[in-house]
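Translate structure to sequence.
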């Protein structure tokens, strides 16, 4: 096992990317990263690598690429080249740090990824991921883009393969579709927070960026970066899954789901389907009154019918009785029964066991 220390001073390397590049692909390695702010855009593709920071608020990797940025050839950067950290290869473990994209409001800069997770198996523990639009991409991409070169980036030309991802005790912050992709991903005991986009309280409140896969004008379109706020204020969508119906999709267990201070009541959706067979469930999660009573939105409209999806929740705990009294779930959103919740949790545990090498045993819901 190769061990490498990265630190502002006194380490083997002072630059994270240089330490990653020093690891032969086939060799297992552990990188420990000391406290400090590392202004880097990193690309990591190894067979088995573990990257450990000094603490969730002590080690910070920060960059600010964004989709609307004009490249030297005159084209826009697009969504999938904006990542602060790209993790590919066979197995990656990331612990005890913050990874952020500080480009800012997606209504101005477009999409801006903090993390592009594309290793066969990914484990993130005690990691804070912060951004605005498209904070965390849980690869793979959909089979095809809706626009030419919409997926320009590291995996545009590669065969799609299902990845398995596990997020434990993480903090994830964003606003528009900020946890998205086609992975089978399990989120346990995470804090998920939607930004307050301050509608009516600041300048620059035009809905939607104009880059990446979705670039057509008009808030009534179905593009990924469009939000129609003509009917009511929408602060954001937590998820935008694109997995296939036979996969597990996104499973959130015992997570705290909320809007940031100032978010209007009912202005945050649990998700919307980036592709028609999307699957996302919330099991035994705590939510506040910022969560929309419909829970999930259709793609291109709140009430658009999405019959091919598997969207639902079980055992939701609410912090306000008003949340429950406003309940008007879209008809295609499921009230998951205990038997189904248990089966979903067992499937989630199988992924956790595979990634962590631990046997969780029988689960309860």
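Result:
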């Amino acid at each position: 096992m190769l061990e490498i220390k990265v630190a502002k001073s006194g380490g083997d390397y002072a630059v994270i990317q240089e330490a990653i590049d020093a690891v032969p692909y086939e060799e297992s390695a552990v990188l420990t990263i000391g406290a400090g702010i590392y202004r880097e855009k990193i690309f990591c593709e190894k067979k088995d690598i573990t990257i450990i920071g000094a603490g969730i608020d002590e080690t910070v990797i920060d960059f600010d690429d964004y989709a609307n940025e004009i490249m030297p050839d005159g084209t826009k950067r697009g969504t999938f080249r904006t990542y602060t950290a790209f993790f590919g290869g066979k197995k990656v473990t990331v612990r005890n740090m913050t990874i952020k994209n500080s480009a800012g409001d997606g209504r101005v800069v477009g999409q801006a990824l903090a993390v592009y997770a594309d290793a066969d198996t990914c484990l993130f523990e005690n990691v804070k991921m912060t951004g605005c639009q498209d904070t965390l991409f849980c690869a793979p991409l959909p089979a095809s883009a809706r626009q030419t070169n919409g997926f320009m980036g590291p995996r545009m030309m590669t065969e799609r393969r299902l990845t398995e991802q596990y997020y434990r005790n993480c903090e994830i912050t964003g606003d528009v579709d900020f946890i998205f992709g086609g992975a089978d991903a399990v989120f346990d005991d995470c804090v998920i927070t939607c930004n307050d986009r301050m509608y009516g309280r600041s300048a620059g409140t035009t809905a939607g960026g104009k880059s990446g896969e979705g670039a057509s004008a008009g808030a009534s379109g179905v593009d990924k970066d469009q939000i129609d706020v003509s009917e009511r204020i929408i602060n954001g969508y937590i998820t935008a899954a694109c997995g296939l119906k036979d996969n597990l999709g996104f499973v959130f267990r015992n997570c705290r789901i909320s809007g940031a201070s100032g978010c209007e009541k009912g202005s945050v959706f649990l998700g919307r389907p980036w592709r028609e067979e999307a699957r996302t469930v919330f099991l035994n999660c705590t939510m506040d009154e910022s969560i929309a009573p419909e829970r999930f939105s259709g793609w291109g409209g709140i009430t658009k019918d999405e019959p091919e999806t598997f969207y639902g929740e079980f055992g939701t705990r609410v912090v306000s009785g008003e949340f429950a009294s406003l309940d008007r779930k879209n008809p295609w959103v499921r009230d998951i029964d205990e038997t189904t919740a248990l089966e979903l949790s067992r499937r989630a545990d199988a992924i956790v066991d595979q990634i962590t090498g631990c046997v969780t045993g029988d689960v309860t819901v």
